[in-house]
Structures are given as structure tokens and as C-alpha cells.
């Protein structure tokens, strides 16, 4: 495996978090993660114990799971319980959907308290907050991104992948600009289906990419054969 392929694999969150994702789907994702040493594989929380066994000999592949998924509308106490249980089951990363309805209502005090509580509950496990940018305007994206940074979120993530839009270059650029070089980083997720879009998102500052099995395989196979397609990663 060349440097370009290796480096991109360490930026991919491979995802099998749709309602119809089966055990066979997850095992197929695990095989690709093993092949390319992908940084993490995300599954719905009930699959975490099974995935932990599947990856027991591959400690470099992290196990992630979404919390409050996909609506973000459950009570904060429910999210906290999910975080505790999912980490206890073997998750090494947490992606939590922010309360979208509260954001759209302008109830940023609620959102702030929930983000703070989630970071505290997950510590020292890194946690991302999912904004679901499809429903938000620029000001709302900036507000939640700022709260995420202040709460100590490791990442701000664009979307669940359950809406019709997700990781647009424009929205990712807004998040990167708001974070402005601070410790929190940006994960793009939702609708990434080509190497070209990955490259565009990388150019604006994205450093994690939520990809499906088919897209991840296509992109990594492509770069394994043709590393010159992404020279920025040849380091």
C-alpha cells in the first residue's frame, strides 16, 4: 500500500449505520477496514460487542457508534446512558447527534448543556457532535460549532447520512472557518460518493470522511493503483 492510500485510510470513518445494515454488511466493512487499516468503523450501538470481537486482532481500527441517532431528539439523560453503555460495550469513539429541534428553536442553552454533559460522560473517549447541516443555516452551523469547541468536542460532523444533503464543501468550509484552528476538527459525512469530493473537502480543511463500504472501497482501490490522483497525501 502506498503512502497516499495509507494516509487517506487513516482519515476514513467507514460507516454501516443505516437501519437496514446487517451483520453481513458489518463484517464486509470490517474486512475492508482490516485490508486498508482504516482508522474507524462505525456501527449502530447494538452491533458494537460483535464488532469488538471481529476486530480483536486489529487494535488500530477504532470502533465508533452514533448516539441519539438519527434524530437527536431523545432526552439528554438517554444520550448519556447510551454513551456509557456503548463505551462499556467496546466503542472507542462516539458520534452524538445534537438536538436539531432545539437548535432550530434557538435554545442554545439546552444545546450547550447537552454537549458539555456528553463530553463529560464520554471522557476520555473522543466524541463528535453531528450537526445535520441539511436543516441548518450558516448562523446555526456557526453557533453549534462554537458550542462544540467550547465543550471540548473532538470533532464537528456535518450529517447523519439520513438526509438528502450532508457534506457540502460550503458547509464544511463554514465549520472550518468557525473552528479557526482550535483543537476541534471537522468530519464530513453524508453524500460523499467520489474521490473528487473527498479532495475538495480535504482542501477546505476536513480531516475525517464518513464513507459507505462501496465508496470507501472504490476510493481506496483507486488510490492504491493511482496515488498520483491525490498528491497532497503523499507524505
TrEMBL record:
Gene3D superfamilies: Aldolase class I (3.20.20.70). Keywords: Cytoplasm, Schiff base. One of its GO terms (molecular function) is deoxyribose-phosphate aldolase activity. One of its GO terms (biological process) is deoxyribonucleotide catabolic process. Its EC number is 4.1.2.4. SMART domains: DeoC. It is an enzyme of class 4 (lyase). The keyword DNA damage does not apply. InterPro entries: Aldolase_TIM, DeoC, DeoC/FbaB/LacD_aldolase. NCBIfam families: deoC. This is Deoxyribose-phosphate aldolase. The lineage of its organism: Bacteria, Pseudomonadati, Pseudomonadota, Gammaproteobacteria, Vibrionales.
